């Protein structure tokens, strides 16, 4: 059963995606497409599959947590692209797909005969998405792009960290995530354009361009001033107070983004006189006198714990939040009534909890959750996909016998558990 069959109410139901990507940016994009109802067929090497299958610990049973985070909603076709028959099957899949996503090194996909121009001849309406570290126009050509390199090269790292301290890597592979989001958005836009024009298109998305575009107001600050933007750590460059504050027992964020919110904050913390102080009357004044004001507010907020301040400031209409750990944040979201996770029925792990996408089409229900495919075992759907392409039982059996296709859902990569490849 395809994703489309299970989620016919989703906006991309009926869309077939041939996913030739691996690791993070591409699989994240295709997972979002699957969340929107697309039937995503994940093409993997028959022996080791996606690289992230071996990126543990930690493990859930014999499945790497990293892999599980990026591949729900998909079907796995484990097939050797170096074999002529295997390649022919994947070419047939691309010929009938609405969307093809790939992130091979430059030149490799063309040598396989699966580049955009080659697929376009078979499938003129295809929306073809190429994902790379550095775009095709970037020099030097073919430069490898990993998240940590792009965080540094794009300026992202320079914006993160304490003032006067060293640039700091963001704790998640953020340039990959931005790239996946950009790819999914561009693909959806291209599919909409195809409905209007009847023609497909080639979408190029890179980590470097995604990271640069994410700099938004910080980049514009540099363009306007002609100076490198400073690091502000847990504070904001142009809004005060808009930062983390220590309390008696934990750190808390206050985001008083305008004059009205600032006055409410002063009253709520028992320092109403600060609202009338001319040094802090407007946001530009508060930015100019940042250090003095932050010291005053820190002293006031240190009188109580975070759990005491949260209801007080919330009742006053002041945007406020607690600095939480990851698991604490997930459980807090669940407790608020906005379920942050989904539980799927995994073929070997049973109930498996995964983080939901950042969008909702309707209120999550047990029935809708039950329709979501779990992250597939390696080759779990090889037979069904190949049958859908018109291969006979005898042809499939021959491919399996020669090791071209894996159809048993097992992966030898789990034997490498001793190493942590993060």
Automatic annotation (TrEMBL):
Entry keyword set: Transferase
Keyword Secreted among record annotations: no
Gene3D superfamilies for the chain: Crotonobetainyl-coa:carnitine coa-transferase, domain 1, formyl-coa transferase, domain 3
GO molecular function, one term: CoA-transferase activity
Pfam family, one: CoA_transf_3
Source superkingdom: Bacteria
Classification via SUPFAM superfamilies: CoA-transferase family III (CaiB/BaiF)
Protein name: CoA transferase
């Amino acid at each position: 059963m395809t994703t489309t069959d299970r989620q016919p109410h989703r906006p991309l139901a009926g869309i077939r995606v041939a996913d030739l990507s691996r690791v993070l940016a591409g699989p994240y994009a295709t997972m979002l497409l699957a969340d929107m109802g697309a039937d995503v067929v994940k093409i993997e090497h028959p022996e080791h599959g996606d690289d992230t299958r071996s990126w543990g610990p930690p493990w859930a049973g014999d499945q790497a947590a990293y892999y599980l985070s990026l591949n729900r909603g998909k079907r796995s076709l484990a097939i050797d692209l170096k074999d002529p028959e295997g390649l022919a099957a994947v070419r047939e899949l691309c010929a009938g797909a609405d969307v093809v996503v790939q992130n091979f090194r430059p030149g490799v996909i063309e040598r396989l005969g699966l580049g955009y121009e080659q697929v376009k001849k078979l499938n003129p309406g295809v929306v073809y998405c190429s994902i790379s570290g550095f775009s095709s126009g970037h020099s030097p050509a073919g430069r490898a792009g990993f998240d940590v390199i792009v965080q540094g090269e794009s300026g992202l790292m320079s914006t993160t960290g304490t003032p006067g301290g060293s640039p700091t890597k963001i704790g998640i592979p953020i340039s990959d995530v931005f790239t996946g989001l950009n790819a999914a958005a561009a693909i959806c836009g291209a599919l909409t354009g195809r409905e209007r024009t009847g023609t497909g298109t080639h979408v190029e998305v890179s980590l470097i361009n995604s990271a640069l575009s994410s700099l938004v107001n910080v980049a514009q600050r540099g363009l306007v001033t002609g100076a490198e933007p400073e690091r502000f750590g847990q504070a904001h460059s142009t809004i005060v107070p808009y930062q983390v504050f220590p309390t008696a027992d934990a750190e808390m964020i206050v985001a008083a983004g305008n004059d009205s919110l600032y006055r409410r904050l002063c009253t709520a913390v028992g320092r109403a006189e600060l609202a009338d102080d001319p040094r802090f009357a407007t946001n530009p004044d508060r930015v100019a006198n940042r250090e003095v004001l932050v010291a005053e507010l820190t002293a006031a907020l240190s009188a109580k714990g975070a759990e005491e301040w949260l209801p007080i400031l919330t009742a006053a209409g002041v945007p406020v939040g607690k600095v939480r750990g990851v698991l604490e944040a997930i459980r807090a979201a669940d407790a608020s009534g906005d379920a942050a996770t989904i539980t799927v029925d995994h073929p070997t792990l049973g109930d498996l909890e995964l983080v939901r996408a950042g969008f909702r089409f309707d209120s999550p229900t047990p029935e809708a959750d039950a329709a979501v495919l779990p992250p597939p075992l390696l080759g779990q759907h090889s037979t069904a996909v190949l049958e859908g392409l018109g291969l006979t039982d005898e042809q499939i059996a021959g491919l399996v016998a020669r090791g071209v296709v894996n159809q048993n859902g097992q992966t030898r990569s789990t034997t490498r558990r001793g190493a942590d490849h993060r």
